Amino acid sequence: MPDGRHQRRKQPYLLDARFQLKWTSYLVVVVVVVMAVLGVVVARTASRASDTAELAVKQAANAYRESKTNNDLVRTSVQVAAPDNSGLASIMDESLAEVEAKQKQNLLDVQAKKASIARDRQNIQLALGASGVVLVCLLLFMGIVITHRIVGPVHKMKRLLRRVSTGRLVIEERLRRGDELEDLFDTFLQMTYSLRAMQSARIRTLDGTLRRAELTGTSPDVIDGLRALRAQMVLGMERRRSSMRPPPPSAV
Fold first, then answer.
1. Among 147, 142, 137, CA closest to 23
2. pTM for the model
């Protein structure tokens, strides 16, 4: 069962969807453009690195093929020049095999480097895409939260202005911690204080008029009308019932 105490209602974050989404979208578009430019620069840099690696692989492959062809020519020349010298042929084969192995290892290293650059390029693209999605979602959330700090006070002031326009001059609501437009809200509160002071002065003037009317024997209809007017004026100066209740006793 509710105890009648004033409970603060939880307001949605989209109090003014048009305003909040418009400025949030501006922020998101600016960041997306910056990220797109950055992505193009990174993509071009990665593409150049990939092209360089591809060229290095081609050069290493050509060098390996040329080295193998030269080694075959040297072996053939040794066999023609000294067919009976098996020791020289064996030494030459070992030397040529060592050179060929180095060229092959160089080709394998360049191919591994190319594969590593390709993986890095793919990882960078995935990281940019994922970070872009996360950043856009974060900006959407933060944009709505930040604009809520501006729209919230405006929404509250519009509601309180409608209340003041009906003659209810007691304003007990305050802005939440972290809300913007505090100076404007303070100015609005000062206006209500001034209106209440003016209303109090009018009620005192009306009280004096009622006393004189009663003493001079004015028509009861006129006096009743003045009293009804006074009651209406006093009504706007009263606090709400929920706020007039005494606070709950504090725990000892």
1. 147
2. 0.54
